[in-house]
Amino acid sequence: MMNTHPAHSRALLGGCPRYVKGWCCKARERTLRRGYRDVGYLLAPKLRAFRPERFGPRTWARQLGRLSRHLQAADEAAALGWFAEIYPQLMAVIPAGDQQQFVAGVRERQR
Questions:
Q1: Are 91 and 84 in contact (CB under 8 A)?
Q2: What is the total count of domains within the chain?
Q3: Which residue from 1, 8, 26, 101 has the fewest beta carbons nearer than 10 Å?
Q4: φ and ψ at residue 71, rounded to 5 degrees
Q5: pLDDT interval class at 77 (50, 70, 90)
Q6: pLDDT tens digits, residue range 35-65?
């Protein structure tokens, strides 16, 4: 059964849920302690639930495995590429200079 909660619907459409955009605003305003690193840290455990509609459950599991391998190998460029491909709207609200910190937060939570 598909979750029809508005935040999930935006994520499933490849968008960025409003509350994640809120975290990004707080990072930009410097009210999150570790900036965009905290955004990544907070988002990491929610990624499984934010499956874009273009992926079936098995394909999404493979995509998450791909991200996990990038993170385990500390391949930040590949992880950034994954986020840009899967969640372009999310990456559009994270300044280019802060995207590595975002990935570092995701990686920290995945350990």
A1: yes
A2: 1
A3: 1
A4: -70, -45
A5: very high
A6: 999 999 999 999 998 888 889 999 999 999 9
Listed residue (49, 59, 41, 51) closest to 12, CA to CA:
51
Q: Within a domain: residue 1?
A: no
Is 52 among the domain residues? yes
Cβ proximity of 42 and 24 under 8 Å: no
Q: Pick from 11, 29, 12: which is nearest to 20 by CA?
A: 11
Neighbours of 70 (CB within 10 A): 21
Predicted confidence (pLDDT) at residue 7 exceeds the cutoff of 50: no
What are the C-alpha distances in Å from 25 to residues 34, 37, 76, 86? Answer: 13, 13, 23, 21
**Residues spanned by the domain of 45:** 6-110
Query: Are 98 and 27 spatial neighbours (Cβ–Cβ below 8 Å)?
Result: yes
